[in-house]
Design goal:
alpha+beta; Topoisomerase II, domain 5; Gyrase A, domain 2; 6 domains
């Protein structure tokens, strides 16, 4: 009996334990989920509506409440914010410093730190801030703000601010929550507004990050900021001289201090070789890197990008709070949402303005009737308040108003002071009423054309606040840097041609070039044999060395020009060849391999250039013509084993170089990437065509200039400034449409591109004038325009016609052009059949 009782008790205890464990698991899951949700929603991730985290929103709300146009101590702002934010002053101070360093929403005064150097801001009691005009314009609109109670229920705070701007994309954000993170990179102020306008116009957009610290950025894998994308950012490193590099812009997220530390760390590990680093940063960033004697600056730059924080990568992860839950979006989706929200907010403000204007017109009309018709005298005999109001109402009921007259309106009329009645100016009152009605008509027009109004509103923002906010980060494409390509060239390659030794330990011998201890070297002897071997301190490779250099197996454009005499026949052969494959330490023959063969001329050109040489024959040779010229361009480039073409059967005394020609390598297919401004073979974007050594590229710029250049370009293209880029054709004719703001009309001109001077900018307009705006540029053979114009000044009769540009005479660039139409043109489009 007792045994049974004990068993039952043990079973009950086990059941209770299991139930307790289950309850604990459920409680843990519930509490952890609540904590995670709180951190995600209330601390780390911004809301999609206004792009702000709760602490940022509360700071800006507090600043608006105490704003009087003067600076406030940050400590005071922090204290005001603590009424809404229950997490202490430290987090608020840190958040307001971050906002201030963005230089967008608030004006700052004092030492706010430096994002470039990593210097921290002064204490909150020493620095001051106030709302910037831009912040006031885009952040607040109390009548359309949704409010909620603060954490203690005493005050109200905005659920989200009615922000009318893509603030989140402009400022960027980074936050780490529980099992979730967000990272949105900052974008350019001007580009965001222009992209917003493009969205409203139905145009495609393409946004890329822009960083306050400048630098270079490769956004080819940005993928519109969604998860899985990647952005590479590099410092801007310039070569001051062959012994000094200077860093003038640093990657986003780094500081001058952290950057220098990474450089010194790489130097200590032997990744790079430098003399020392000096930080001269003051108003502008300037980090000097002094090189060791004999170092190649270009190689050190690549090593800095590979082994230090001079290049950093970021993985964007656009996560925002929408409908009280985290969602992942792209920057394009985020901008589209912001544009739609801005349009809706502007509509709400217009509706409020419309209502306010109607009320003003309503009461102004009531007041006018009340005073001019002397209704105030009709109420002198009224005995009761009700009779008084009834009398006024009876005298007004014959008039039509936009809404019924209520008792409050009648009471307001009775409150008009005698002084106002006695000094009432009916003419002035009528002018005020007309002005109110004009304003109302304008507001209604804006409501009926909301898209155009929003575009104009964005344009106003750009005009007022866009100055000085141009892009700081240069967009480009980065080539992949291999470690073996940037190994420090800390050795010198020497050669003893007569004895046949090479190596970096042959001090005092003939210097060839700088090298590293992992390089390969190609050696060509006078007997026409060559070998590729790994460099060493001292190595015998064969006597009578004619050519020695560091060999790069990836160099597919280097070409050798060779003249040799066959040992068996005495016939001289000429050939051009490349060496693009090899087996290390294997001897190859460039001649026919017969004993006594010898090389009489050899040259190496990195870009496949041909050359003209002068052949001097032996004085005892049996020919009258003992001197002639030979052009290597007449030969095709073949493999190293090719026999070559017969040059002469007579004995050669000497070969002298006369002139270097152009490259004879095959034409290369070039592509223009409009996102980065790069022109490269096997690229992406716009195919420019096949380019040989003499082919040229035409570039037309938005400012109304063009130039002709060659590949590779001697300068960097900025995509935003380019309206046309294409391969230059013979007698290239450009058709141009431009708008003259002085005449306020459109002009058209056609001219032949001037190719006399390469890389020189020519003016498209008849004179250098800021009054002309380039609208259309095309090189089509038979271009046509579609003109949209107004028949009269009523702006109602709108028509469009086709305009054939072929009928415009081709003149010089200096010609003013032809007036496109005397009618008021509203739009000009290039007709694409």
């Amino acid at each position: 009996m007792n045994e049974t009782s004990d068993l039952e008790q043990d079973t009950n205890n086990l059941d209770n334990t299991v139930a307790s464990v289950g309850t604990m698991e459920a409680m843990y899951e519930q509490w952890f989920l609540a904590y995670a949700s709180y951190v995600i929603l209330e601390r780390a991730v911004p809301a999609i509506e206004d792009g702000l985290k709760p602490v940022q929103r509360r700071i800006l709300h507090a600043m608006q409440l105490i704003d009087d146009g003067r600076y406030n101590k940050v400590a005071n702002i922090v204290g005001q914010t603590m009424q809404y934010h229950p997490h202490g002053d430290a987090s608020i101070t840190e958040a307001i410093v971050v906002i201030g360093q963005k230089e967008l929403l608030i004006d700052t005064q004092g030492n706010w730190g430096d994002v470039r150097t990593g210097d921290s801001a002064a204490a909150a009691r020493y620095i001051e801030a106030r709302l910037a005009p831009f912040g006031k314009e885009i952040l607040y609109s109390p009548q359309i703000t949704t409010w909620q109670l603060a954490y203690d229920g005493r005050k109200k705070e905005p659920r989200t601010l009615p922000v009318k701007f893509p603030l989140l994309l402009a400022q960027g954000v980074e936050g780490i929550a529980v099992g979730l993170a967000t990272k949105i990179l900052p974008h350019n102020f001007i580009e965001l507004i222009q992209a917003s306008i493009d969205l409203l116009k139905g145009n495609a957009i393409n946004l890329f990050p822009d960083f306050a610290t400048g630098g270079l950025a490769d956004c080819s894998h940005y993928q519109a900021g969604k998860r899985g994308g990647k952005v590479r950012v590099r410092a801007l490193i310039l070569v001051r001289d062959q012994q000094t590099l200077v860093i003038t812009q640093i990657p986003y997220g780094t500081t001058t201090t952290s950057l220098i530390e990474s450089i010194l760390k790489a130097h200590e590990k032997g990744k790079i070789k430098i003399k020392h680093v000096v930080d001269n940063t003051a108003e502008d960033i300037e980090i000097l890197i002094n090189l060791l004697p004999g170092q190649l600056a270009e190689t050190v730059i690549d090593a800095l990008y590979l082994f230090t924080d001079c290049e950093v990568s970021y993985a964007p992860n656009a996560c925002v709070i929408q409908d009280d839950k985290p969602v992942f979006v792209t920057v394009h989706e985020l901008l589209a949402y912001t544009v739609d929200r801005t349009t809706a907010l502007l509509e709400q403000e217009l509706l409020l303005e419309e209502q306010a204007l109607k009320e003003k017109i309503f009461f102004a009309s009531l007041e006018k009737i009340f005073i001019q018709n002397r209704i105030y005298r009709q109420i002198e005999d009224c005995q009761t308040w009700e009779d008084l109001l009834m009398t006024i109402a009876d005298h007004l009921k014959s008039y039509d108003f936009y809404r019924p007259i209520v008792e409050a309106d009648l009471v307001r009329l009775t409150e008009i002071k005698i002084k106002r009645i006695s000094q009432y100016d009916s003419l002035r009152a009528q002018e005020t009423l007309i002005q109110l009605q004009t304003n109302l008509a304008t507001t209604i027009h804006h409501l009926q054309n909301l898209k155009d109004y929003t575009i104009a509103w964005y344009s106003g923002l750009l005009e007022k606040y866009g100055k000085g906010r141009e892009r700081k980060t240069t967009l480009t494409n980065f080539d992949t840097i291999e470690p073996q390509d940037v190994t420090a060239k800390e050795y010198k390659l020497y050669v003893n041609r007569k004895q046949g030794f090479i190596g970096y330990g042959l001090k005092g011998e003939e210097f060839v070039e700088l090298c590293s201890d992992i390089d390969d070297v190609i050696v060509i002897g006078k007997d026409g044999q060559y070998v590729i071997t790994k460099i060493a301190d001292k190595l015998f490779v064969g006597k009578d060395i004619m050519h020695v250099s560091v060999y790069d197996k990836k160099d597919t454009r280097r070409c050798y020009n060779l003249i040799y005499v066959d040992g068996a026949t005495g016939i001289a052969f000429a050939k051009r060849f490349q060496i693009i494959s090899m087996t290390r330490d294997k001897t190859y023959d460039l001649t026919l391999g017969t004993p006594g063969s010898r090389v009489v001329y050899l040259s190496s050109h990195p870009n496949g250039a041909a050359e003209i040489v002068t052949i001097l024959l032996s004085p005892i040779s049996r020919t009258a013509k003992k001197k002639f010229e030979f052009n290597f361009a007449d030969l095709s480039i073949r493999g190293r084993a090719a026999k070559g073409n017969i040059l002469t059967k007579h004995a050669i005394y000497k070969v002298q170089p006369k002139a270097q020609g152009l490259s004879t390598l095959a034409a290369v297919e070039l592509w223009y990437d409009s996102a980065t401004g790069s022109i490269a073979p096997k690229g992406k974007g716009q195919l420019l065509g096949l380019f040989g050594p003499t082919d040229k590229i035409l570039v037309v710029f938005k400012e109304g200039k063009y130039l002709v250049t060659t590949y590779p370009l001697p300068f960097r293209l900025i995509p935003d400034r380019i309206v046309l880029i294409e391969r230059l054709k013979d007698s290239h004719v450009l058709s141009v449409v431009y708008y003259n703001s002085v005449v306020q009309n459109y002009f058209v001109k056609r001219f032949v591109v001037d190719v006399r001077v390469l890389d020189k900018k020519y003016n498209i307009f008849f004179s250098e004038s800021n009054n002309c705006v380039l609208k259309i540029v095309t090189s089509f053979l038979a271009p046509k325009l579609q003109l949209h114009y107004l028949v009269d000044t009523t702006n109602k009769d709108k028509r469009s016609i086709m305009y054939d540009l072929e009928k415009v005479a081709v003149k010089t660039t200096k010609a003013k052009g032809t007036l496109l139409s005397r009618s008021k043109i509203t739009q000009v489009d290039l007709w694409n059949e």
